[in-house]
Amino acid sequence: MDLPKHQAGFVNIIGKPNVGKSTLMNILVGERLSIITSKAQTTRHRIIGLTNADNYQIVFSDTPGMLKPQYELQKNMMSFVNISLEDADIILFVTDLYETDADIEHVIEKINESGVPVLLVINKIDLAKPGQLEEITAYWTSRIKSELVIPISAGEKFNTDKIMQEILDRLPEHPAFYDKAELSDRSERFFASEIIREKIFENYKKEIPYSSEVSIEDFKVKKNIISVRAIIYVERDSQKGIIIGDKGAAIKKVGIQAREELEKFFGKKVFLETFVKVEQDWRKNKLKLKKFGYDP
Ligand code: GDP
Ligand code: K
Ligand code: MG
């Protein structure tokens, strides 16, 4: 008798900033693993999410948006994109209705030469005007070699199960790569820092979100409560003042929103303490990036 077949493989989600990669990944995994905001460059790390079933395991990777790097942090972010091209069994190339291939021509060339099957996902079709989808499809199919075009709305969960089906049709036969009980390769600390970072992205303007990093100094899971001590690092003293706000009002708001989101994520009461510190120009400094977990 034949053993029932088991499929497993790596599906890497790539595309320009803000096209909806993280929104899509969360739907495919069924959990809110990747943070989502309306600002470009919210996602800084490659984040793995697993979809497990008896006879398959899909290892999704959400990646930072592809761009021309301007400083060390962005260089590091782009190295994740390059690595994710190398180990993919399937690439989900995501675009929305508005992006072009400007600045990423070289990456598209690499994708086209890679031989990895590409599913071209056109997102945000809830916003499409008549004829726009046909136009965008023609544009992208002339640039990227894909097996299939899948128009979706991640925001409205429209046509995302079509993506799942097309992935399963192409997933290699292979044993599971990760423990089937897991949803991600990332730690609870990592998700805690990401959730706080999301609230910083939502609450502050201009350079502040990009100059901020969150480090979890203490993470204790007790019987009825998780207690978390987080340090928000910024690049300059003036930014520290902005993060804290008038009489501490701004940091208090971030703390409340983050705590609520942490409680949802962990399904437990959370006690959250936040502190703000200055780490001069950390984004430009390789050593400091390493300290914050941005390994090359
Ligand atoms: P990423 O930078 O590619 O990871 O994009 P995100 O997932 O962070 O989403 C960027 C923005 O687009 C967020 O404000 C999302 O709410 C929004 N968005 C994502 N998918 C859709 C969609 O299908 N329709 C619309 N209208 N907005 C979307
Ligand atoms: K974003
Ligand atoms: Mg993202």
How does this structure look, described?
The mean pLDDT is 93. α6 (188-203) crosses α9. The longest helix has 18 residues, at 249-266. This protein has helices at 21-29, 72-86, 105-114, 132-141, 160-170, 188-203, 208-211, 237-244, 249-266, 286-291, and strands at residues 7-15, 47-53, 56-62, 90-95, 118-122, 148-151, 213-221, 225-234, 269-278. It folds into two domains: 7-170, 3-Layer(aba) Sandwich (Rossmann fold); 188-291, K homology (KH) domain (GMP Synthetase, Chain A, domain 3), CATH 3.30.300.20. It has a six-stranded mixed beta sheet with strand order 2-3-1-4-5-6, sandwiched between helices. A three-stranded mixed beta sheet has the order 7-8-9. The protein is of the alpha/beta class and 296 residues long. The radius of gyration is 20 Å and the shape is globular. α3 (105-114) links the parallel β4 (90-95) and β5. The structure holds guanosine-5'-diphosphate (GDP), potassium ion and magnesium ion (MG). Magnesium ion binds at residues 21-22, 34, 42-43.
Brief summary:
With 296 residues, the protein is an alpha/beta fold.
Mean pLDDT, all residues? 93
Helical proportion, percent range: 25-40%
Query: Could you say which small molecules are bound to this protein?
Result: guanosine-5'-diphosphate, potassium ion, magnesium ion
In quaternary terms, these chains amount to: single chain
Model regions low in confidence, pLDDT < 50 over at least 5 residues: none
Gyration radius over CA: 20 Å
Discrete helix count: 10
Coarse morphology = globular
